[in-house]
Write a structure and sequence with these properties.
The chain has about 240 residues and is an alpha/beta fold. It contains 7 helices and 11 strands. Helix 2 runs parallel beside helix 3. The radius of gyration is 19 Å and the shape is elongated.
């Protein structure tokens, strides 16, 4: 495939190296401050972006104009931006996920089974940890996990606690830790009477997300217009 990468930072460089190792051609890397890569004279088969939401406007324009696929993993999007991606998927294949780790996708499936069994008797808490350069909090992955934990919004979502907060209510605590070079850790706690259950996914480096992005791009190579996600990759592995 011919790949155009959004952003030219550490993540973009990792995507480029991994894509080229897999035999793909990277025709350029672009961001909102330097769009010169768009004038390379070649048309991309897919755009991969894990950079910053400021890049979304030119990415939408490029994908529409070139009718190519999009793999999108940038977090911190507004509802309007998410709607723009949904509208784009009506004409081209779009793979959108807050986390491209296969392990996190499996964690989400585990929670879909565990939460209905435990949420009535156990208190639930969510903790996520990321490096000190991450701009948004809580992480996009934490928000996705929280949606599984609280699908009907029956629980009040409490973001951190401070002061005399009183007795715990019908709530889910959400906590974001930032520091060092932590690639990403997400932990869901279920606290019951005299017992507890903890489920954790820990990423040791960003390569797992890059590998997932390349798999997603390859997955889209023969797909029709539509919105795809990590559950589709899991299903493909199960069927294969």
């Amino acid at each position: 495939m011919k790949i155009l990468i959004g952003g030219n930072g550490r993540m973009g460089s990792l995507i480029r190296a991994t894509a080229e190792q897999a035999g793909h051609t990277v025709i350029g890397m672009a961001d909102a401050f330097d769009l010169s890569a768009l004038d390379c004279g070649e048309k991309a088969d897919v755009v991969i972006d894990f950079s910053h939401r400021d890049n979304l406007p030119w990415i939408l324009d490029y994908v529409k104009n070139n009718h190519c696929a999009l793999v999108y993993g940038t977090t911190g999007l507004t509802d309007e931006m998410k709607q723009q991606l949904a509208e784009l998927s009506e004409t081209v294949p779009v793979f959108f996920s807050a986390n491209f780790s296969y392990g996190v996708a499996v964690l989400q499936q585990i929670l879909r089974t565990a939460v209905p069994l435990l949420s009535g008797q156990y208190d639930m808490e969510l903790v996520e940890t990321h490096h000190n350069q991450k701009a948004d909090a809580p992480s996009g992955t934490a928000k996705a996990l929280l949606e599984i934990m609280n699908p009907e919004h029956a629980f009040t979502e409490v973001y951190g606690r401070s002061g005399m907060v009183g007795k715990r209510g019908h709530e889910i605590g959400v906590h974001a830790l930032r520091g060092g070079t932590e690639a990403g850790e997400h932990t869901v706690h279920f606290f019951g009477d005299n017992e507890s259950i903890t489920i954790t996914h820990h990423a040791t480096n960003r390569q797992i997300f890059v590998n997932g992005a390349i798999q997603a791009a390859e997955f889209l190579s023969d797909k029709k217009a539509g919105m795809y996600g990590m559950d589709d990759l899991i299903q493909m592995h199960q069927e294969g």
